[in-house]
Write a structure and sequence with these properties.
This protein has 308 residues and is of the alpha/beta class. It has 11 helices and 10 strands. The two termini are 15 Å apart.
Amino acid sequence: MARSFEVALTSAPVFFEPVPPSLRARSDRIDSYFEELASRLRSVDALDAIDVPELIDENHEGRPYYRTADPRQVGRQLAERVGRPVVVNKVVAHLPSAEALVAWAQETIGSGIDKVVLVGGSSRYIPYPGPQVIEADKACIGLLRDRGGHLGNIAIPQRQGEAHRMLAKTRAGASFFTTQILFDSESLCRTLREYDALCQKAGVPPAAVLLSVAPLADETDVEFVRWLGADIPEAAERWILNGDESLAGDRAIEHARRVWGETRSVVEADGLSLTLGVNVEQLTQRHLDVALRMLSELSATVRQSPAA
């Protein structure tokens, strides 16, 4: 039986982040996409939520090109078919103003979606028109709480000072974070220790943190995730690919389980008070099979955790 979203955030939450259909896809292919994905997600008992991203390309001036359908449309379709909560991501940097963000939040809640992840721009050097993430959190949290909703943000453990940013976002209303895709545990463990200590010092309950993982199949995938900003240690890349792409998916799953296990051990050994979960990402349409297998196997591992 599926848990409520609120309960999931207190005990090893499990999210799946699919690739939404392209804006250019034919209607019959979109229908087929929803049916296949929903059918397969319904079989994953440990799935707590579907995390729908907003995929955007930017030009050199930071102007957006939206590659996929509105995450709210995708989310509603999947929620109806799968029967699990959906979380929609919104890149607030590209909105024209803070007022436009509030209007977006009101429309989103009005459509029946009350769980959102607010995301900043991809470059700190571009003067985006939209609000900063903390400002966006403060503008939306009241609307979401009034409906019993939840607010999340993205954590980038490799970024210097990230624990302090996470504390500020938690104070602004974030109840969970999904991380950037990770292929090692070192930066995350360091950030979690610092974040938990900062929260305790400030008297603020820490938000849940979901470790994001994704399968790799070949060198093209490695280049893609590095373009997304993820850090892949050379040792991890060599071990996953290992000159034999036919087994790369299996090794990627095993590597993700290793990263989870290392992180979970640190959380338990150090007595951290935060909740740790996992967010499995599907990089591209061709990764659906292995991503769903990663979701099934890793969710079983996560739910075996003493804290789950």
